[in-house]
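Pinned message: reference record for Bet v I/Major latex protein domain-containing protein
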Amino acid sequence: MVLAGKLITEIGIKSSADKFYNFFVSQLHDVQNICEGVHGTKIHEGEDWHDTETVKHWTHVIDGKVQTYLESIEEVDNENKKIIYKVFGTDDIDNHYKLFKVTLEVVDKGDHATVKWTIEYEKINEDIDPPNGWMDYLSKGTKDIDGHLFNGEKVAL
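Predicted structure (tokens):
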């Protein structure tokens, strides 16, 4: 019985790696105004959106269902443009997974950049499906953010 797994997707973007990564480092609070699937975000605990001690509350749509969860930053590696998020704290996550981490990596490949999302999870039992809908959500969100940044809309970096 396999309960743990990883899902990985890599998406090419038009924006520069720096610009895309900096959005997550300094302007993530704007994501609800850019991504169709994000219905709301707010700080649950703490004061700074980008502090590792801050817990954020998210509401979004995955697989056609409104879901909520809490998220905190577990690790930031600015040199490698990598952020690891821990997702927890609501029925949508805690009733299905013992572990749920989402990793963002933005890679500069010279003539273009890519965004790599990794979801690491451990299901509470074998009847739980892998979080494939999350990959669709992250892929769509990546495209929404990239389109916003690439089209030069008002995002100060």
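Pinned by admin. Summary line: The helical segments are 17-26, 91-94, 132-150.
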